[in-house]
């Protein structure tokens, strides 16, 4: 696998996998529900690993990297089936955020507070 995977190539890989192994894409609405489920699994692990909740025995088989990859997979599926180039959309979004927020976060005193104050 190429270590410099682009979002465009990732979308192509997902599409090839769906065409080869997946028969067809789930409907966009089904994929939205699956995305919500996968984000919930990330939230569960984050709450246990970085938050105050303790791990349950059933959580031990899950790892954050795999759960984040599941979220990305479904996002790539939704982008493919709705005709969105995530690479182009991400670059436009980064430009929008840069123009809008280039000074905003530097001026936020909450972001400059020490960890003890937060």
Any key phrases for this structure?
118 residues, 62% helix, mainly alpha
What is the first-to-last residue Cα distance?
41 Å
> Helical stretch count?
4
Oligomer: single chain
What is the overall shape?
flat
Q: What is the radius of gyration computed over CA atoms, rounded to a whole number of angstroms?
A: 18 Å
Give a short summary of the structure:
The chain has 118 residues and is mainly α.
Structural notes for this entry:
This protein is mainly α. 62% of the residues lie in helices and 0% in strands. It has 4 helices and no strands. The longest helix has 22 residues. It starts with 6 loop residues before the first helix and ends in a 17-residue tail after the last helix. The mean pLDDT is 92.
SSE layout and pairing:
Layout: H1 7-22, H2 28-49, H3 64-82, H4 86-101
């Amino acid at each position: 696998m190429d270590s410099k995977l682009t979002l465009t190539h990732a979308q192509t890989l997902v599409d090839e996998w769906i065409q080869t192994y997946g028969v067809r894409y789930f409907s966009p609405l089904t994929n939205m529900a699956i995305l919500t489920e996968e984000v919930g699994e990330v939230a569960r692990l984050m709450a246990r690993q970085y938050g105050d909740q303790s791990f349950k025995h059933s959580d031990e088989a899950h790892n954050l990297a795999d759960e984040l990859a599941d979220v990305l997979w479904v996002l790539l599926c939704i982008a493919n089936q709705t005709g969105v180039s995530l690479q182009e959309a991400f670059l436009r979004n980064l430009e929008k955020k840069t123009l809008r927020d280039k000074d905003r976060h530097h001026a936020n005193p909450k972001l400059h507070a020490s960890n003890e104050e937060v």
